[in-house]
Amino acid sequence: MQKRFKNLVSILGLITLLLLVFNTSGFSQNYPLVTLHDINYLADSTTYPNFPPSPLAGDTVRVRGVVMVRTVVGSNEPGVGDRRPVIWVNQAWSCYIQDKDNPEWGGMQVYQADSSSANAQQTLFDLADTATVYEFTGVVTPYFQSTELFLITSPVPIPIEEIEVLPERPAPTRINMEDLFTGTTGNYSMRKYMGTYVELVADANHNLITSDRVTGTGGASGNFKINDEHGRYLMAYAQSTYFKMNANGIRPGYESPVNGTYISYIRGILTMRSNPNIGVDYWIVPLYPEDLGDALVLPPSVTSVTRNVVEVGPNQSVNVSCIAKGVQADIQSVKIFYRVNSGALDSVSMAPTSGDTLFTGTIPGVAADSAFVDFYVKATDLNGTSMTNPFNPNTSRYFYFVLNRSITIKEVQYSPFGNGLSGYYNYPVTVSGIVTADTVGRFTSAGFGAPSSANRIIIQNGVGPWSGIWLNAANTTKNVFGLKMGDYVTVTGVVKEDYDVTRLDNISDLVVHNSNNPLPVATLVTTGSIGTLPSNTVIAEQWESVLIKFENVTITDVNADGNPGPDPGSGSSRNFGEIVINDGTGNMRCELQDGNHKYHNDWSASLGNNPNFVSVDSGATLTSLTGYLYFSHSYYKLVPRINDDFVNYTVDVDDQNNLVPGSFVVNQNYPNPFNPSTVISYSIPNEAFVTVKIYNVLGQEVATLLNDVQSAGVHKIDFNASILSSGVYFYSVKADNYTDVKKMILMK
What we know:
The structure is a single chain. The protein is mostly beta strands. It has six domains: about 25-165, CATH 2.40.50.140; about 175-295, CATH 2.40.50; about 315-400, Sandwich (Immunoglobulin-like), CATH 2.60.40.10; about 410-515, CATH 2.40.50.140; about 525-655, CATH 2.40.50; about 660-745, Sandwich (Immunoglobulin-like), CATH 2.60.40.1930. Strand 26 and strand 27 (about 385-390) form a beta hairpin. The longest helix is centred in the first third of the chain and has 11 residues, at about 10-20. It starts with a strand and ends with a strand.
């Protein structure tokens, strides 16, 4: 808990207050009881894309809410009483809660990262059941565009407390698709329903049509989109295991609606992700099976669209096949619609060639070299209901190039429709290029050592957009890890996508022609041109796996996902090794964990005092910063490879001071818990006489770390507690009339 003391007149008063505040008896009662409205309400809710965080972000609070979905699967579920999480965040525990009376600004996700330790079991969070009001104690934590509560599990777990059992969970708030949008731009005022239970219903004026169904084994399996007839959509997010279609699903045989299905309604928790293309990207999380309505109209299905030729030459026709099935009526017709170089649309009929489901048609050959051919397939049943594959040909189509030469990386990577998919997706290809990034010699705590766990080897052919591709070492017996930067190679593999990044899998042939070649020159781009663009946005996607460079860069945030310091595994200070950089055109992310360099942002407690590393500072500048572009967890990010990618890294004390907040701020020490060293950092807005002291739980002073005048700015103190015994301690930072006290834990 954070307390600020002004005009502290004596050390005796400080000791007395410490004993009062941190008495372990009734520990949770020391935290303020707030409402969900207190946590969520923002008077200015329309600032995009940087929605302001909760006014209580980072605070530890108590809050009450009715559970909208239980934490673990109930023992009364037939065949699934194994206590798996219902809301799937790996093996963590989570649920959604809501104000029982007012949904506006009244919903939030509750999260407990640790679900297996003895401490974790003491929170009783796994007993949280639907339609019951509980009191939760945790840290208010921003997450993407929403806010979560991270439960307290250490050093003293704080159990949830049952307050009231309701007859049923609150009814959903009825909204329409147009409520979420102004035209096709996101309506930010609907953010007031973030985290609450809502319902969309089909009627005479509103259609709800499914698309973009995700199947398979990945984490997104079970996701699908809900569309209306005006092009507006929101993602149905299969976060609940009742709606997953992989091994984590708990309903045997469950299938999400096939693309093009008209459904009667959908209910669930409203949430969002940022999407600059439309202003905001709304998601809905259905919780229980009854949250998805009946299918009103089932269109024919069109699947398994393939072509018989991978590399197409001039005047070479292409046979396209698909599987088309009628659902509510038999198939009437199946056609291929195609065009050349974005010209007029033409069509050819497809005929059944095996039974009544496998259809084949032929796209005529094209004489022109380097022609670009795109196409889609449309099936219509006897009721006149149609389905296309891809679902929306206006934004996505199959395609190939007509070439009188072998394809290159640029043809393989090229993806002009904003879906990220290559025209050679799922086909074997052979391409050549120079290795521009490898994982050999990853920088470890002792120096350069074992390969990176990222398993990313990048090759590039030439310079400019679409010229690089990732070689996946995990799915091959070829010695991809043996490649070094500067090797010129020819590789044969199957084109795949891994979390929206194109790569070559199942590598069947790998030839190293020669080594020590000069690397392609990095292309100069701007941070603002990439920024926070969503996946598959063409303006950013064109640089995927390509060497790019930014000039005159400033580090604007040393931890893009939380507070400075190591990732504790839970709580509010998550750190995935990502910083924020800006060349004056806008912020974007930079990933430091996956390179072979010495720069870091303290994602691990072991890095802080290691002389082999450089801990980056907020406000530091670089003449240039180079790396390849990668995408993961909703962000494009630059991945520097080697020390030379960081040119003229400079920490300017004056610049640092210019970044100091206009108030006195004391940060939580990190790491915490620690053994035996930790860092205490703080900011002062003006020159002041500063005293930093350490106290034990009895209020006795055990160390004075500073007693001197300091200039305005950000200051850090390394505290080594090797002479102290394990236990709880407090550090006090006093600057003129301001004092802040925080708790820390020494664990030897």
